[in-house]
Write a structure and sequence with these properties.
InterPro entries: CdaR_GGDEF, CheY-like_superfamily, Homeodomain-like_sf, HptR, HTH_AraC, Sig_transdc_resp-reg_receiver, Tscrpt_reg_AraC-type_HTH. By secondary structure, the chain is an alpha/beta fold. It is 61% helix and 11% strand. The longest helix has 48 residues.
Length: 532
C-alpha cells in the first residue's frame, strides 16, 4: 500500500478526489491533505509519502515551486500535477521537474484511476528492482570477508597485477594506509597439544585471540593460509617492527599460559609497497622454520637472528634443492647428508642421457651460486668459476659428485652456524660497549639498548641471558656497582656523588643496591678497604 498526499487550496477538491477514487483497490492510501505548498512541505517531513498530487495555483507557494522543493529534498517521491489551465509553460516546467502526470481539470475519476494504475506498476517495478539491488548488496557485504581473504592470499602469493591493485582495495573496502607493511605468520604446534583438546579447535582459539590482542593495535588484516593464521600488519615507521616483535612474543606467552597452545610467530621483513608483501610473507615463513633452532613459544624475526640474510626464494629445481637448502640452514649434519642423498636420488641418478646429466649439473651450480650469494657465504668455496666448475662436475661419476656436494653442503652448514653465533656475539659486544659508555645515565634501560641495536626486547633479552648468564638489567647493575666500588676505594668522593655518577639519583636506593651486591654498605666497604 503506497501513501498519497493531496495538495490543493480548495478543500472540497481534495475531498472529492479522496471519495471518487477507490484508492485502496488501486493500492494507495491517502495519508493527508494540505491546502498550500508550505503546509505540504511540513507534512512531507513527517510522513514522507510515496506520491504527492498537487494543484499548481495555490497561495504562499504554488505547485511548481512545491514540486521543485520536493524533487530536491525527496527525489524518490512521485509527483502528479493537476490544474485548470492548459498552459504550455506549465507543461514545459512539469517535464523539467520530471512530473509523472500532468492532468487538466475538471478531474475525472476514470482518468485519475488510469494514472494511478500506471503509477502503481511503476512503483512496484522500482521497489522490486530496489529490493533486488539491496539483496545483492547484502550478499556482497556478507561475502566481503571471504573476498578479502582471497585477495590477501593472492597478494602474498604475488599474483595481484599492479594496475588492478587499487580496484581490488576499493571494491573490497580494504583500509591499507600503511605507510609500512609486514606479514606475520602465527603457527600453532600440532604436536605439542594439551591433553583432551582438539587440534583444530585449539588453532581456532589461537586465531581468535590473535584477532583480539593483535589486530586492532597493528591495524591487521587476518586470514588463514596453508593451515596457519596470517596477518598483514601496518606500521607507522620501519623501526616499529621491534615493538611488533615484542607484541607477538607476549602473545605467544599469553596463549600458552591461557589455553596451553605452543605458538611460534614469524615476523616478516618490513616493506613500503603492498606488492612487496610477497617477500614479507616468504621471510615470515622462513622465520617460523627457525623454531627448530631457537625453540617455539616465541616470536622470531629473521632480520634479528640472521641480520644479513636476504629473502630466500624457492630453488628453481623445486622440492629437493629447496629441502637441501633448508637443511643447510636449519638441520644438523645427518639431516644435510640425508638431503644430499635425496637430491641425488631424485635429480641426478635418474638421468638417462649425458645431455640431461649435464643440464642437471648446470642447474645445481646455478642454484648453489644463488643460495650462497643470498646468504653472503664465501663464494670461493665454488673455486675456479662457473665454467671450470661445470667442466669438473660434468665429468664426475654420480658417486663422486655426491661426495663433492656433501662436503660443500656440510661446509656451508658450518659457515651459517658460525655466522649466527658471530652475529649473537657481535650484538652482545655492542650492548656491553653501549653500557660502558652510557652507564651514568639514570634512565638507561632495556628499551634504550634495543632501540640502539634495532632489535626487539624479547630477542635481545633471550640471547643476552643465554650468552652471558645474566639479564641485561643484572649486567647493567653489576657494571655500575663495579664502577662505584672502584670509586669508593680510589677517590674521596662522597657516597651520594658516586651514586649520581653511576646513574642513581637516590642515594638511599644506591646504598640498598650496593649492599645487595657486596653485602655491606658503601661507607663500610670503603672503611674495610682502608683497613686492609
Amino acid at each position: 500500500m503506497y501513501t498519497l498526499l493531496l495538495v490543493d487550496d480548495e478543500e472540497e477538491v481534495t475531498q472529492i478526489i479522496a471519495k471518487k477514487v477507490k484508492w485502496n483497490e488501486l493500492g494507495f492510501s491517502v495519508v493527508g491533505h494540505a491546502n498550500n505548498g508550505l503546509k505540504a512541505l511540513e507534512m512531507l517531513e513527517e510522513i514522507q509519502p510515496d506520491v504527492v498530487m498537487t494543484d499548481i495555483r495555490m497561495p504562499y507557494m504554488d505547485g511548481l515551486e512545491l514540486c521543485g522543493q520536493i524533487r530536491e529534498k525527496y527525489p524518490a517521491t512521485k509527483l502528479v500535477l493537476f490544474t485548470g489551465f492548459d498552459d504550455f509553460e506549465y507543461a514545459k516546467e512539469a517535464v523539467h521537474l520530471e512530473i509523472e502526470e500532468y492532468i487538466l481539470k475538471p478531474l475525472n475519476a476514470a482518468e485519475i484511476t488510469k494514472v494511478f494504475e500506471d503509477l502503481k506498476k511503476k512503483l512496484d517495478q522500482e521497489i522490486n528492482e530496489k529490493k533486488g539491488a539491496e539483496l545483492l548488496k547484502k550478499y556482497y557485504k556478507d561475502s566481503l570477508p571471504l573476498l578479502q581473504a582471497n585477495f590477501y592470499s593472492t597478494l602474498i602469493e604475488g599474483r595481484v597485477p599492479e594496475e588492478e591493485l587499487g580496484k581490488y582495495i576499493m571494491n573490497y573496502e580494504i583500509d591499507f594506509t600503511g605507510p609500512w607493511y609486514a606479514c606475520i605468520i602465527i603457527h600453532t604446534s600440532t604436536t605439542q597439544v594439551p591433553k583432551d583438546i582438539d587440534v583444530q579447535l585449539l588453532a581456532i582459539s589461537v586465531d581468535r585471540q590473535a584477532g583480539e590482542r593483535l589486530e586492532e593495535k597493528w591495524r591487521g588484516k587476518r586470514f588463514n593460509y596453508l593451515g596457519d593464521t596470517v596477518m598483514i600488519v601496518q606500521l607507522e615507521s620501519k623501526e616499529e617492527v621491534s615493538e611488533l616483535t615484542d607484541s607477538c612474543d607476549r602473545f605467544c606467552k599469553y596463549v600458552n599460559h591461557m589455553i596451553g597452545a605452543v605458538v611460534t610467530v614469524g615476523v616478516g621483513q618490513v616493506c613500503d609497497n603492498i606488492l612487496e608483501l610477497v617477500k614479507s610473507y616468504q621471510s615470515a615463513r622462513e622465520a617460523v622454520s627457525y623454531r627448530v633452532l631457537y625453540g617455539s613459544n616465541q616470536a622470531i624475526n629473521l632480520k634479528e637472528i640472521v641480520p644479513k640474510r636476504k629473502v630466500a626464494t624457492e630453488a628453481a629445481d623445486g622440492t629437493e634443492l629447496a629441502y637441501l637448502f633448508k637443511m643447510i640452514c636449519l638441520g644438523k649434519n645427518p639431516d644435510v647428508k640425508s638431503a644430499v642423498e635425496r637430491y641425488m636420488e631424485h635429480k641426478i641418478v635418474p638421468t638417462k642421457s649425458l645431455e640431461k646429466y649435464h643440464v642437471a649439473v648446470m642447474e645445481l651450480i646455478s642454484e648453489m651460486y644463488h643460495f650462497m650469494v643470498n646468504n653472503e657465504l664465501d663464494i670461493q668455496k665454488l673455486s675456479g668459476g662457473a665454467g671450470q666448475l661445470y667442466t669438473l662436475l660434468s665429468n664426475m661419476e654420480p658417486q663422486v659428485l655426491e661426495k663433492w656436494l656433501l662436503n660443500l653442503c656440510l661446509a656451508l652448514h658450518e659457515d651459517m652456524a658460525n655466522a649466527r653465533d658471530h652475529s649473537k656475539r657481535s650484538l652482545i659486544d655492542q650492548a656491553k660497549e653501549y653500557v660502558h659508555n652510557n652507564y651514568q645515565e639514570e634512565s638507561l634501560g632495556l628499551d634504550d639498548i634495543c632501540r640502539e641495536l634495532g632489535v626487539s626486547n624479547s630477542y635481545f633479552s633471550s640471547i643476552f641471558k643465554k650468552e652471558t648468564g645474566k639479564s641485561f638489567v643484572g649486567y647493567l647493575t653489576g657494571y655500575r656497582m663495579e664502577k662505584a666500588a672502584r670509586m669508593l676505594v680510589e677517590t674521596n668522593e662522597k657516597s651520594y656523588m658516586i651514586a649520581k655518577s653511576v646513574g642513581y639519583t637516590d642515594p638511599n636506593y644506591f646504598s640498598y643496591v650496593f649492599k645487595r651486591q657486596y653485602g655491606v654498605s658503601p661507607s663500610k666497604y670503603r672503611t674495610e678497604y682502608e683497613n686492609i
